[in-house]
């Protein structure tokens, strides 16, 4: 089990699922084989399996102890959910809650849940099945949702921008079983860009992958960590930040947000913690010419 600290904050990795997820050709919009060949040897086996041409990915959550607050960032795919949009994330039966317990936390210990965005694999454990109903998994928690996301993904909303066809398909049933029950229970708090959760813990909106995607910033005693959700899915996107995933809703905004977060990580020496990274589950970013390169290990 992986833990690290950022200043005074303690951070624990909670694994839900891991596996070969897709080929680079399948995941990346704008994939270019020649370009990939130029940097693939710098990508560790824990992120790419050349023998099967597969990207290796995790579903995972992070528990952050910040002062008196216990925060859970992202909640994976969840168990027992019907997921026709991405069947590999449907009808799961993972030991996520046992993994949470092994890290020392019960569901009632969580004070704040933050969903980076409202995609299928970031909201699942918001709820669990009890007597045939989806109820909040974390009974005491305030759940922080991006205000923009809450409207965008709600299937009964008709005003404003609506999800792409791919987005709507991927997220079939997701709002209904993993977001609406939190709203109904009165446990949701809608937040905007720059919202402060507690001193040293803020969220900011980086649009593109989804329109209201939240990045979580930890700043303590001069140490920084950026929990960036799906702003990037894979280290290949550090070498080539113009490659979006096929799940990005707005291509130009997703590219711009990716470059902005890579620049921020490089310039503040922040640990970058994307949602789906294997290996150590985080990287650092260094500038290289006009671009960036990932740094997979660094002395603390
Ligand atoms: Zn996503």
TrEMBL record:
Pfam families: Lactamase_B (PF00753). It comes from the Bacteria. One of its GO terms (molecular function) is metal ion binding. Keywords: Hydrolase, Metal-binding, Zinc. Residues 58-276 form the Metallo-beta-lactamase domain. Signal peptide: none annotated. Gene3D superfamilies: Ribonuclease Z/Hydroxyacylglutathione hydrolase-like. Belongs to the metallo-beta-lactamase superfamily. This is MBL fold metallo-hydrolase. It comes from Kineobactrum sediminis.
